[in-house]
């Protein structure tokens, strides 16, 4: 029994960085047939989902569990204060989301000090191409990886302002790299704008992002971009990012 559980955990862990069955098998050292059987069980339980091109990514149940666990842990103490400080400085709704396959999932949210509430919630998944966090993550990847995300997801239209073609997305990603932060101008939700910046782990790999969001009637995302970048850098360092890393 222990052997079967070990194999399932190995596949689950490999799925964080690999999506193709062959790559997961190579990463775990398990036969492809065994990996395929475990993945089918994970799909049935909502822990994984097929991408339609022969690959797999974390499923909705996995994302929801991750969000609930991180929320219960209050995102350890060394991270949460940075989000609250960003909220204090900007007055906006602040999010932290972690990358999972071709999407990200909110793991923390600090509500803005306005009478309204944004629709986002901990455990909710978000598209990369239409959100400030997502575009910040894409800007930390290579253009080939960005094009791969576009091909696999199809860049679904969320609002009339959503970027839905790969050339437009690549141009936006390039502008994000120059600017230093990503912007969402009603591209994911009508009436909402946000600024986002990437978060990196101790190895220098992008693992998620931070955003500060508000209604477009309140202000634009460019006003808080530098603040969001600073918070993302602080969180990255809290996660072990070397101080001399130049990815941000």
TrEMBL record:
Q: Which residues form the IclR-ED domain?
A: 61-241
Species source reads Phytohabitans maris
> What domain of life is recorded for the organism?
Bacteria
Tell me yes or no: is Kinase among this UniProt entry's keywords. no
- What positions does the domain HTH iclR-type occupy? 2-60
Q: Which UniProt keywords apply?
A: DNA-binding, Transcription, Transcription regulation
Which regions form coiled coils? none
InterPro entries associated with the record:
GAF-like_dom_sf, HTH_MetabolicPath_Reg, Tscrpt_reg_IclR_C, Tscrpt_reg_IclR_N, WH-like_DNA-bd_sf, WH_DNA-bd_sf
- List, alphabetically, the SUPFAM superfamilies matched: GAF domain-like, Winged helix' DNA-binding domain
Spell out the protein name for this chain: IclR family transcriptional regulator
One Pfam short name: IclR_C
| Record flagged with keyword DNA-binding | yes
